[in-house]
Specification:
The protein is an alpha/beta fold. About 35% of the residues lie in helices and about 25% in strands. The chain is built from nine helices and ten strands. Strands 6-7-8-3-9-10 form a six-stranded mixed beta sheet, sandwiched between helices. Helix 4 packs parallel to helix 6. It starts with 6 loop residues before the first strand and ends with a helix. The model has no long low-confidence stretch (mean pLDDT about 90). The protein binds adenosine-5'-triphosphate. Adenosine-5'-triphosphate (ATP) binds next to helix 1. Adenosine-5'-triphosphate binds next to helix 1.
């Protein structure tokens, strides 16, 4: 078990409702500085809602829903990030504070080139930071070098995911939120990306929160994990604790 108890983010008693439907039910999580925290759960367990609540995107979703006369989105609880309560802080401000979301299904700009996508990510970076980070990203994902001038929409799923992670890195995160980064990828690509996430974490010290439906490919890289079921946390533990529990492995990790 890690000796690093330095908390970067702590969410307490989070509740999120879409109209009357409870999507996140009394969730409390802790993410330690420099660690990789995994959030696991089946379809509709609440992973993306939790990520939106941590990144602040839920504030934008709420406004959009209100404007189109849709359902009401409400939330309760606290999120403390580096000592600040951020629950009502806008996502753009949270990004400035270092919380950067890499959204589910990559969401690269398909008609912009790979390079343009990366440059868009650098909106919070100084020119010097942007240059250095671009170099870092292209070393981490050399596959992207020959694709710099190709429209992102023509990249494979794995390449788009590399680009999405690279774009998020360009925003100079202190905490990177990766929402299902391995979704729909072939096993070899999954392993490649899981390894890249580990490298980012080890080489840059960026704290990572990563959600996945299937824990197996990311299990070796996480420090601590939570299992979400119907919006509630039903299980948590260090990678070692989770790995030493055969019932847990069979039920939640397909191992
Ligand atoms: P997936 O793996 O399918 O992305 P998830 O674990 O990310 O699932 P969420 O997308 O957070 O789960 O969904 C949690 C619950 O909230 C589900 O019951 C879902 O139907 C509901 N939900 C999510 N987004 C909305 C929305 N915009 N409006 C209404 N209900 C929503």
């Amino acid at each position: 078990m890690s000796l690093n108890n330095n908390l970067m983010l702590e969410a307490k008693d989070l509740l999120v409702f879409y109209e009357n439907a409870l999507a996140i039910n009394n969730v409390s999580i802790k993410c330690r500085k420099g660690e990789i925290t995994g959030i696991f759960g089946a379809n509709s367990a609440g992973k993306s809602t939790l990520m939106s609540t941590l990144s602040g995107l839920i504030l934008d979703l709420k406004i959009k829903e209100e404007r189109k006369g849709g359902e009401r989105i409400t939330w309760f609880g606290d999120i403390k990030y580096e000592g600040h309560n951020i629950i009502n802080i806008k996502p753009s401000e949270r990004a400035r504070m270092g919380i950067v979301l890499c959204p589910e299904r990559r969401q690269v700009f398909p008609e912009s080139s790979t390079l343009e996508n990366l440059k868009i990510g650098a909106y919070l970076a100084t020119r010097e930071q942007a240059k250095k980070t671009l170099e870092y990203v292209l070393n981490l994902f050399p596959e992207l070098k020959k694709l710099l001038h190709r429209e992102a929409g023509f990249l494979s799923g794995g390449e788009q995911q590399m680009l999405a992670i690279g774009r998020a890195l360009m925003a100079q995160p202190k905490m990177l939120l990766l929402d299902e980064p391995l979704l729909g990828l072939a096993p070899a690509v999954e392993a490649r990306l899981a390894q890249a996430v580990k490298e980012i974490n080890e080489q840059t010290g960026i704290t990572v929160v990563l959600s996945e439906q299937y824990a197996r490919p990311v299990f070796p890289i996480i420090d601590y994990g939570y299992v979400l079921e119907n919006g509630s946390i039903v299980l948590e533990g260090s990678a070692g604790e989770l790995m030493n529990n055969p019932d847990v492995l069979a039920a939640y990790f397909g191992m």
